[in-house]
Amino acid sequence: MWYVMQVYTGAETDICEKCRERILEEGEDIFVPLAERMTKVRGERVLATSRLFPGYLFVETDRIEDFHMRLKDIQAMTKVLKSGEKMSPIHPEEEERIRMLCGDRHIARYSEGYIEGDTLIVTQGALKGQEDTSPQKAGGDGTAAAGTECGSDTGPGSGLQAGDGGNTQDSGGRGVRRYLPANCCRFWSDIATREKVL
Questions:
Q1: 34-69: per-residue pLDDT in tens?
Q2: CATH number at residue 86
Q3: Is residue 192 part of a domain?
């Protein structure tokens, strides 16, 4: 089962490595889900990797109470998220969706696609084939957004943010927009935050 652990934003990788070195036992895993995105550096578009859920780590264990006791050996702010007084795993559907998006390496690969009329079509990447399960919105400003909703009141979610695709065209002459998983955590509210990166 997957549990979510809150840490200071920016310390995710460091705490993840410390946990791996000091407290993880066989059959357990801890990881920082990542997402590829396009960004501009000195006017050039480059592929970058960022945290999918800033400030959170995922812990895979069947013995969360035991893991929580061992967590005291890590000298950092760590907090396994709870539902009421009980440390609760994320919903199985959420775990499956994040596994599907991020794969075994826990990286949501950069997705690419285009908008045809009011329809978002993802041609490659982590979100290919997920168009039917994603609410979609095409704006008049050249942007589009589609969410792959994994969020309940207590679990993390992921989303999709699209930016202006410029004059890029695919082999069929259609305007191509580029899409990427964006940060979208919904731990305690229905508000999904999206990061515009293009």
A1: 999 989 999 999 999 999 999 999 999 999 999 999
A2: 3.30.70.940
A3: no
